[in-house]
Amino acid sequence: MTRSVRICLLPGDGIGPEITREAVKVLRAIGERRGVEFDFREALLGGVAIDETGSPLPPKTLAEAHAADAVLLAAIGGPKWDTTDPAKPRPEQGLLGIRKELGLYANLRPVRIFAPLVGASSLKPEALEGVDMLIVRELTGGLYFGARGREADALGAATGGGAGRRAYDTLDYREYEIERIARTAFEAARGRRSKVHSVDKANVLESSRLWREVVHEVARDYADVELIDQLVDNTAMQLVRRPAQFDVIVTENMFGDILSDEASMLTGSLGMLASASLGDGTALYEPSHGSAPDIAGLGVANPLAMLLSVEMMLRHSLGMQEASDALSDAIARTLDDGYRTRDIADENTDAALLVGTVEMGDLVVARL
Ligand code: IPM
Ligand code: MG
After folding, report:
1. Ligand 1: which residue has its CA nearest to atom 12?
2. Residue 182 carries which DSSP code?
3. Which domains does the chain carry?
4. SS3 category, 89
5. How far apart are CA 56 and CA 49, in angstroms?
């Protein structure tokens, strides 16, 4: 009997539709070999949703996401919708909205080095030895969702600073939000090398001091896992100094946003970093990179972060471990065989092995 799996596809903007096509191709190939029928439902999110409906997250999209077994999102945003006018809708509101609405508080971003790509990293090969980390980023709290606003700067005017404008964002965390993300991190560490770095700015921020307290309370239930507190500025430095020290990093939303982009460079390209966003309901999978509007439509985008996100989806949401391993293996072998999109190519790459988005997808399918 064929099993039917419903996937909500959110191709979004920029290179999103191109890499989504490769994900669909790969999933169909996996399904054919394993008697699984993927029922793909495409919905609008981001800039394209603004253009077609006026809203970056139309209600229909949310309904499709809730009804699916998993959501696969490519990328959103682009210069077309960039604005600082608070009255205008922005694509990012769609992304933040769907994370919040689906309750996706845990964002897992694995940083894994593919041996053949060591040359594409900006770090020396010796620094990359043994690098295998998982960034666990809190995704529905902190500065991204705290109280914010703008107002006329009455005080500034009174003190001779001029009647300037004033804006604020609030870094706000509740105990339960810290507790559940800490548990996610400790649980993940148990299946890895049993080490958690909890990253904060407790020497300055009150929210970080609560973060640290709660993480230590949760740690009592995980005596088998080593816990290390690290200040975020130090982590930023350690990531490029000695990245192999990290197993699991757990941190608040914005620190995680910044550190994960930094960590992606260890792999050689942001085009290699997948992510899974998990909560209590439908999970969402998306590459960590953006919509790359500068190369949209050129057929040169790297689909591998998207395919690695598919790999995570097969494992975490669909219970298809063996298919997930097969995909991971197919991607590794494609790279072993020397194929590169231009973002992961280096001066040693044979021009004949420089491929575009569609070819990269085909090469992976051929190795499944
Ligand atoms: C990410 C992105 C998003 C974020 C943007 C597009 C809103 O940078 O997923 O890391 O900041 O979370
Ligand atoms: Mg980011």
Report:
1. 257
2. H
3. 1-104+283-368 (3.40.718.10), 122-267 (3.40.718.10)
4. coil
5. 5
Ligand 1 pocket, residue 357 CB under 6 Å: no
Q: For this structure, is 233 an active site residue?
A: yes
277 touches ligand 1 (CB under 6 Å): no
Contact 260, 286 (CB under 8 A): no
Check: CB of residue 307 under 8 Å from CB of residue 285. no
Closest residue by CA, ligand 1 atom 11: 257
169, 229, 261, 362: which one is catalytic? 261
Does the global pTM surpass 0.85?
Answer: yes
The secondary structure of 110-150 as a DSSP string is EEE--GGGGGGSSS-HHHHTT-EEEEEEE-SSGGGTS-EEE
| Helix runs in the chain, H state only | 16-34, 47-53, 59-67, 91-101, 125-128, 154-158, 175-190, 206-219, 232-241, 253-264, 304-316, 321-336, 357-366
For 329-338, give one letter per residue: b (16+ CB within 10 A) or e. ebbbbbbeee
Phi, psi at residue 146, to the nearest 5°? Answer: -75, 170
Percent of the chain topping pLDDT 70:
97
DSSP string, 223-255: TTSEEEEEEHHHHHHHHHH-GGG-SEEEE-HHH
User: Nearest Cα to 271, choosing from 290, 244, 297?
Assistant: 290
Per-residue pLDDT of 171-196, as tens digits, reads 999 999 999 999 999 999 999 999 99
Q: What angle do CA 355, 360, 365 make, to 5 degrees?
A: 150
Q: Is the beta carbon of 92 within 6 A of some atom in ligand 1? A: yes
CB 117 within 8 A of CB 302: no
Which pLDDT score is estimated for 162? 65
The pLDDT value recorded for residue 2 is 82
